[in-house]
Amino acid sequence: MQRLLGSGYESFLEALQQTPPTSVRLNPGKTAAKPGLPKVPWAEQGYYLRERPSFTLDPLLHAGTYYVQEASSMFIEQALKQVIDLEKPLHVLDLCGAPGGKSTHLASLISPDSLQVSNEVIKSRAYVLAENVAKWGSGNVLVTNNDPRDFGRLKSFFDVMVVDAPCSGEGMFRKDLQAIGEWSEENVNLCAQRQQRILTDVWEALKPGGVLIYSTCTWNEQENEENIAWLSEQEQAETLKLILRPEWGITPTHLNGVEGYRFYPHLTQGEGFFMAVVRKGGIPEEEAIGKKKKYKLTLAGKKEQALVENWLQNPEQFVWLQHGEVISALPAPLFDAADKVFQNLYVLFAGAEIAEVNGKKLKPLQGLALSQHLNKAAFETADLNLEQALRYLRKEDISLGTNGSNWLLLQYKNIPLGWAKQVGNRMNNYYPKEWRIRMELPQELPSFTLLTA
Ligand SMILES: C[S@@+](CC[C@H](N)C(=O)[O-])C[C@H]1O[C@@H](n2cnc3c(N)ncnc32)[C@H](O)[C@@H]1O
Known about the structure:
This protein is an alpha+beta fold. It has 3 domains: 73-280, Rossmann fold; 293-375, Nuclear Transport Factor 2, Chain: A (Roll), CATH 3.10.450; 379-437, Archaeosine Trna-guanine Transglycosylase, Chain: A, domain 4 (Roll), CATH 2.30.130. It has 13 helices and 21 strands.
């Protein structure tokens, strides 16, 4: 580090002793709030908090209104905005996706008729990714659980790829003491080799002319510039230069012809981070129109679709799918591309899960409550106070003193949390068991109000 930082090394060591800043990114699909807080300068929806609250005790986090994300990582926004035409319908891959920081960010930046595949190789982590994607509620994301090598089956499919690679985590040292204990030169070598393998495996799936955003949360050159230089040598690829504002404090690097961007804690408000943007050489080929194939996705029956279609706004813009009793919806223009992903990968979650249909019995699903396209007017709603909302999220039975036999959409500060079914004066709690808050509620509830701060 001393060699990389020269005279800045002392300040760097000092910064490592300080508490890292806390930052969040708002979901523009769920709120138009502009909190009066300092902004993350490279990300339109990013804000720094003055202190770290107990996020678990804020219902709006569970509703997908914002995501707690380290600020440096939000820099991928500049790569997308500066080198990609985000108005166009794109196929986007987030290869190493869990827990979902970059995936939820990408989903907010691409157009609604773009298809995003968010992947995670470790199954338990893939479920966490699916949960966070469902909470974000964009509706155009498929979550897959595949090894990078499986993506070779989707040759030249993606316009944009994010590889936020597993790394030796030097940039996390002040946040995660365990990372210090696990660091060794041998581990850096292993990480660098694994990153090269991941890049080789996934490269075929990028279209010629497509863009790869590579990032790590480590500083050594082996896992960063050297890996990208290696990729450029192996394949037809060039790194792209981004425009930086001096006040951002980002350190550009140029090593072996590679343009890289480094985040050091004494110069930028964020954790350690590295990013490079690579364009694949070659000219994109016209997509061949293949003969009519057998689809893997099955359309919902007309009758079933009619029962639920007014549960989304602009239902005509969606294609309605059915697997078993579950009906889900995807933006209609994405049907063919989504089917191709289903043919080749293991898909855990797709679009928005709307309802379970059993004869005439209908059950709205959690994905619908959290969808950015939910048509609230189709439901009876009830607003909860903080304690009621937290008890609901703990999956406790709550009573609102109402009577009836309807499905109720429960909200906090006008943002949907999930469903409850009234049975007389009782209310059954349909919040997903796996997502419930496990923490005991404190005697005194905190009043964290990000959206009105
Ligand atoms: C830095 S984390 C990703 C963080 C995520 N992009 C975000 O913004 O929330 C790296 C991810 O790579 C996954 N991973 C580990 N080994 C991998 C491998 N061999 N191939 C692909 N992904 C791997 C890890 O499970 C982890 O979720």
